[in-house]
Design brief:
Blueprint lengths: L1 E7 L10 E7 L4 H4 L1 E8 L3 E6 L5 E6 L4 E9 L2 E4 L4 E2 L4 E6 L5 E6 L5 E6 L5 E2 L2 H13 L31 E6 L5 E5 L4 E8 L2 E9 L6 E6 L5 E5 L4 E7 L5 E8 L10 E7 L5 E7 L3 E8 L4 E9 L5 E7 L2 E6 L4 E7 L6 E9 L3 E6 L2
Antiparallel strand pairs: 1-2, 1-29, 2-3, 4-5, 5-6, 6-7, 6-8, 9-10, 10-11, 11-12, 13-14, 14-15, 15-16, 17-18, 18-19, 19-20, 21-22, 22-23, 23-24, 25-26, 26-27, 27-28
C-alpha cells in the first residue's frame, strides 16, 4: 500500500486540519484509491514533517505554537506523541534531520531563528540547554525570563543581518538541508541569504554566506546528486544553482526562470523537488496554480524550463516525486492531486486523480 503522512493548518491558522493526517492508496491503483484515510495524531497546525532516518519517528513543526514535537508510529496509520512540544521560535516552518539521526534543524520564518536540537537514541527531542535552564529556573523559583535580556543560546545559530542594509526588512529563515560534508545550508527568504553552518558544541557556527540578488526571496532547495545546490525563489520565480569551490566556499553559477511565463508578483513558487536520478526538477507556482518542470543540464550546473502544467489544486503548497508521479498538496482547495510524469521528457502528462484533504501543507512518505 502507498502511504503518506500529511501535515496541515488547523483552525488557529485558518485551516481545517486537526493534526497529522494519513493518506493511503493501493499500490498500482493510486489514481483511483489514494485519499485521506484517518487522523494519525492530534496536533496544532503541523505544517511541516520530517522523518528520522532509522526510527519510526516523525517530527512536526507546530507553526502556530512556535514549537516542534516528536511522534512515534503506533499503528498502520497512527502516531503517538514522543514527548511534548518543545519551544523553538516564531512561526517554525521547516525541519531537517541529519543522516545519523542525531540532529534536528528547525527554521523559523517569524523571527529568523535557525535552531539546532539534539535527538536521543529513541528519537526524542533534546531541548536546547539554555531553554531547559530557563524552564528549570521558572519551575523552581518562579522566575520569568526578561524578554529584553540578551543571552547566548547553545542551540541557536547566529542572527542574520541584512546584507543590503535596508529598512523595513526582517529575517525569515525558511528551510535547511544537510550537505554530504556535514555542513548545514539554510535559506533566509527575508534577507536574500544562503547561509552555511558547521555544528559546534551544542550549537551552530556560521561558516559563510552567499548573498543573492535583492528581493528574490530564497525559499526551498534540493541537494543534487551532482553536488550542486538548487534553490527556488519565492519572489522572483527563479531557481538559482550554487556550486562548491575547492576551498569549500559556495557561489552562484547560474539562475533560471522557473517558467518563461511565470508572472512575478502573481506567482509564488513553493516547493522544489527532483526525480531520483536528478534529471528533472519541479516547482509549484502558487497563483497560477501550475507545476513548472525543468531539465538539469551539463554536470548539474545549468537548468532549462521544459513544461508548465495545471497542478489540479488551489495554492499548491507542497509536492513530491513518488514512483513516476507528482503528489501535490492544495492548501486552499483542501485537496491533493496526482499527476503522471513522462519518464523520458520529464513533462507532466495530466491530472490522474484528485481527493479531499484538510488544508494540506506537507506530504511525507511513510517509512
Amino acid at each position: 500500500m502507498t502511504r503518506f503522512w500529511l501535515g496541515g493548518y488547523g483552525p488557529e491558522m485558518d485551516g481545517s486540519a486537526e493534526g497529522i493526517g494519513f493518506l493511503a492508496g493501493d499500490d498500482g491503483r493510486e489514481a483511483t484509491t489514494l485519499g485521506y484515510r484517518d487522523l494519525a495524531a492530534t496536533a496544532s497546525s503541523p505544517s511541516w514533517l520530517a522523518q528520522h532516518p532509522s526510527l519510526d519517528v516523525v517530527y512536526a513543526a507546530l507553526e502556530h505554537e512556535g514549537a516542534v514535537q516528536a511522534f512515534v508510529r503506533s499503528g498502520e496509520g497512527s502516531l503517538a506523541p514522543l514527548g511534548g512540544p518543545v519551544p523553538t521560535g516564531e512561526a517554525v516552518c521547516h525541519l531537517a534531520v541529519s543522516r545519523d539521526g542525531a540532529t534536528l534543524i528547525a527554521s523559523c520564518y517569524g523571527d529568523g531563528r535557525v535552531v539546532r536540537f539534539g535527538l536521543a537514541t529513541d528519537g526524542r527531542i533534546v531541548p536546547a540547554k539554555a531553554d531547559a535552564a530557563a524552564a528549570l529556573r521558572a519551575a523552581l523559583f518562579g522566575e520569568d525570563e526578561d524578554p529584553d535580556a540578551v543571552r547566548e543560546e547553545p542551540g541557536v545559530g547566529a542572527a542574520a543581518s541584512d546584507p543590503y542594509g535596508l529598512p523595513d526588512r526582517a529575517s525569515h529563515a525558511h528551510s535547511a538541508a544537510f550537505l554530504p560534508d556535514g555542513r548545514i545550508v539554510t535559506t533566509d527568504l527575508g534577507f536574500d541569504l544562503v547561509r552555511f553552518w558547521r555544528l559546534s558544541g551544542t550549537g551552530l557556527r556560521l561558516d559563510h554566506e552567499v548573498i543573492l540578488p535583492l528581493g528574490v526571496g530564497p525559499r526551498h532547495m534540493v541537494v543534487h546528486p551532482s553536488g550542486h545546490l538548487h534553490i527556488v525563489t519565492e519572489y522572483s520565480c527563479e531557481v538559482f544553482t550554487l556550486a562548491e569551490a575547492p576551498s569549500g566556499a559556495w557561489a552562484v553559477v547560474s539562475s533560471t526562470l522557473s517558467s518563461p511565463i511565470a508572472e512575478v508578483g502573481v506567482d509564488f513558487p513553493a516547493e522544489l523537488a527532483r526525480t531520483r536520478d536528478g534529471a528533472f526538477l519541479y516547482t509549484a507556482l502558487r497563483g497560477s496554480n501550475t507545476i513548472a518542470a525543468l531539465r538539469v543540464l551539463g554536470g548539474g550546473e545549468r537548468l532549462e524550463s521544459i513544461a508548465l502544467a495545471d497542478s489540479g489544486v488551489d495554492w499548491p503548497r507542497h509536492h513530491l516525486v513518488f514512483e513516476g508521479k507528482l503528489v501535490v498538496a492544495g492548501q486552499r482547495s483542501d485537496s491533493i492531486s496526482l499527476i503522471d510524469l513522462d519518464e523520458r521528457t520529464g513533462a507532466p502528462l495530466g491530472i490522474r486523480h484528485q481527493a479531499p484533504a484538510a488544508t494540506p501543507t506537507h506530504i511525507l512518505p511513510v517509512r
